[in-house]
Amino acid sequence: MAKFRKKPVEIVAFRLGYDVEPKWFIENDRVCNFIQEKCINGYVSCDLETLEGTMRANKGDYIIQGVKGEIYPCKADIFEMTYERVDK
After folding, report:
1. Cα–chain-centroid distance for residue 5?
2. Distance CA 61, CA 44 (A)
3. CA distance 71 to 21
4. What pTM, to 2 d.p., does this model score?
5. Cα separation, 2 vs 26, whole angstroms
6. DSSP output for 16-58
7. Residue 62: how many CA atoms within 13 Å on its side-chain side?
8. How many CB atoms lie within 10 A of CB 59?
9. How do residues 17-27 score in pLDDT, each as one tens digit?
10. How far apart are CA 34 and CA 57, in angstroms?
11. HSE value, Cβ hemisphere, 13 Å, CA-based, for 14
């Protein structure tokens, strides 16, 4: 079996419930059911229409905008193993 390495592609992302929601997230028509109830146990979630169907993102998950504008959630531990910050 052949091994593969992910190409170094830059994406933009934010951590749901921790970072300020960026404009590309707020104005995206593929984001539905964005729930932010900080008064009740700090609960935050949203449903995202992805290429694979509707996916739920919860507080602490990263929301990624890919190179073609697609959006999808990623659990924090997977994100931190896969991506590193690019300072520009």
Report:
1. 21
2. 10
3. 13
4. 0.80
5. 40
6. TTTSPPPHHHHT-TTEEEEEEETTTTTEEEEEEEETTEEEEEE
7. 18
8. 17
9. 899 889 888 88
10. 9
11. 11
